[in-house]
Amino acid sequence: MFFPQLQRLIRFDRCRLSTAASVSRQICRPICILKKMNPSQKPISSLSGYSSITVQKTFGNESSAEETLQSFGGKFIDEKQFQSNYELEGIVNVASLQEEHSFLCRSRTGVDSGLRSSLKTINSFEHEGIVDVGSLQEEHSFPSSFGKKKKKKKVYSNYVEKSPYSNSKSKNVVGTKNSNCFGGLPKVERFNICLPQFRDIESQEVLRPGMLLLKHYISLREQIDIVNTCNSLGEGPGGFYRPGYKDGAKLRLHMMCLGMNWDPQARKYDKVHPVDNCEPPEIPLGLCLLVQRAIKDAHCLIRKDSDMVNPEDILPSMSPNICIVNFYSIHGRLGLHQDRDESKESLKKGLPVVSLSIGDSAEFLYGNGREVDLAKKVLLESGDVLLFGGESRMVFHGVSSIVPSSAPEPLKAKTGLRQGRLNLTFRRF
Ligand SMILES: O=C(O)CCC(=O)C(=O)O
Ligand SMILES: [Fe+2]
After folding, report:
1. Which amino acid positions bind Fe cation, per UniProt (predicted)?
2. Hey, what domains does the chain have and what are their CATH numbers?
3. Which one of 146, 195, 196, 278 is least enclosed by Cβ atoms within 10 Å?
4. Is the ipTM of this complex over 0.95?
5. Could you report the per-residue pLDDT of 54-93, keeping only the tens digit for each?
6. The pTM is what?
7. Whose alpha carbon is nearest atom 4 of ligand 1?
């Protein structure tokens, strides 16, 4: 799906999508059916699990007419076009979503019934302009309680308390306020049949104004998709290479750029890759959506954390057009630096850098200057998302070390990811 040879197919489908949507709109309300994906296909997060969208005309003879639109989450439609042409004004096959997701949706809030919550979820995605099937499928987005503050620390744990995925910290006790239908019965600690792992979102943290850490934000399935996608792209034109500095020293990582190429020697962005002269691959749409979803969730966190009315003032929204993908072996590292080669406008606005960590954990340093001793340290684990924008946009940061053998076993088992850490930083030029 992200292979260059598929781009043509995807672009072709893009036309069909526009046509189908506009024709359908003239006649009737289209119903979009998200078709389940064949397991051999490897999607990217936002549309993960679905290989195509079908637009059906809903009544009369037209119901036989059907357009199947490939939608692999590659850059086949831009988001605006998707929203404005398509808008999902019909209902996304609620029955099948209900079947597959009602448990997940219900579980998330603990109160919604399946159909209502499926619809609610769809509506809210519609409202947000993001059709994030990955989230529907993947029990991923934070619930409305996300970001509520713990009293003492700036740490956010309500998700853990309310969510059925909160394996280790479940406070769901019979006879408490949490379960009023069993009032009066003796208190029984719930037993969790699953070990605490990826959904244990217990410490969403504001590290400093404009710098936030969303712990364990990316689901395992999404991490797998991202590794597979980066691996496929990394083998092709514009893929991974080991860059060097002007003095001939090599960076202690492998790098690949998406959208635009960043040249560490010249410290500037360019259209082509310095080694193979190829244009870098596009950023897959699914990744852009994931980034935007993370920014929205970071906004929730900011809102809960401070009395500021507008979280945009702390962390502006951003639609990425650059992604730098780094792979660190267990000996990899990156010195303290600022990300300052994006456009003046982007830097002036404080448009954030959004960083995804996958694989082995990293000790990440950040501070106001290059002095390692004065820098603060935070552990970035597989699935974590770090954002820095606004007044923290020019924060110094770097990776002091990689923690060997700390990657989730299932991630390694499913992808064959080498020992080391994959990091993707999204930016707007
Ligand atoms: O690997 C990381 O977490 C940081 C990467 C980074 O700072 C960069 O690519 O500019
Ligand atoms: Fe950086």
Report:
1. 337, 339, 397
2. 4-137 (no CATH), 205-427 (2.60.120.590)
3. 195
4. yes
5. 333 333 333 333 332 333 333 333 334 433 332 222 222 2
6. 0.60
7. 398
